[in-house]
Amino acid sequence: YNIYNKQVLNMFPFPVTITNLQFVVGSCVAAVLWTFRLHPLPPTVTRAQIAAIFPLAVVHTLGNVMTNVSLGKVAVSFTHTVKAMEPFFSVVLSSIFLGESTPPIVLLSLVPIVLGVILASFTEPTFNWAGLFSALGANVTFQSRNVLTKKVVGEKLKGIDAINLFGIITIYSALLCLPVTLLAEGMRLASWTPTAAFQSVGGAAPAIVQKAMVAAVCFHGYQQLSFMVLSRVTPVTHSVGNCLKRVVVIVSSIMFFRTPVNPLNLAGTGIALAGVFAYSAAKRASSKKKH
Q: What is the DSSP string of 146-190?
């Protein structure tokens, strides 16, 4: 997903439009699952449940838009290095909304994550403020979604499983993202001059559409799996799993795109990821003490 998505954004620099396409494709996947009974339809969804799902869809939409904005501005490896700060935001938001207390050893493990991201930011060859703040914003919104999902699912959405919940959120997001797409990128799209990357493939729109569709399907599959995992674990555990995934994404994207890196930049990324592993170990240790 990340590799195809970055290729598309390099050729077609409209992140909100790309995000909307991904939501539309995801909505079609959900419709196919329900139409052909590949997954049972959700039970009767009440107005109260629709209202409860709405804020989840809003933060889900914002998180994916900001992720694509960041991927369009900076290297894939840098976006995912910044997004390694997920545990930090998860701890803060879980404390605020779920009332969870965090042991000192866990808080201490967050320090190398933050310091590593700061070092990586200051030494990043492709550094861009918009890319940095978009990735940070995506962290906040995704962790808000995860915490809200945990809170809302337990209280108001009984009877709606993770697959159906994500399908409803995706349809919601496609509808929410459409007016944003028109307002944010409609005029630019109308007067767009193809990029050099677009011209390098001969302006082959079918090739771009193919990559965009593959990225969209992979995006939906990843997000669906993420929601299914979230329904079975805590938000913090979920964010740790996401960070472990980033190790693979960062290494593979550097190799695929031949992203220029320097020793300090690699050190910053390594420190941040090491902090994630320390954080995971601290969480496990503190959990054993509670039991």
A: HHHHHHHHHHT-TT--HHHHHHHHHHHHHHHHHHHHHHHHHHHHH
pTM, full prediction: 0.86
Residue 5 CB partners (closer than 8 Å, separation 6+) = 18, 68, 71, 215, 219
**pLDDT confidence of residue 199:** 60
CB 257 within 8 A of CB 75: yes
3-state secondary structure of 234: coil
Name which of 46, 27, 40 is nearest 158 in CA terms.
46
In the chain, which residue ranges form alpha helices assigned H by DSSP? Answer: 2-11, 15-35, 47-73, 76-82, 86-98, 104-122, 129-155, 162-190, 196-200, 205-230, 235-257, 263-290
Residue 1 is predicted with a pLDDT of 86
Helix (H, G, I), strand (E, B) or coil at 26: helix
Cα 161 to the center of its chain, rounded Å? 21
In angstroms, the CA 68 to CA 214 distance is 15
Q: Decide if 123 contacts 264 (C-beta within 8 A).
A: yes
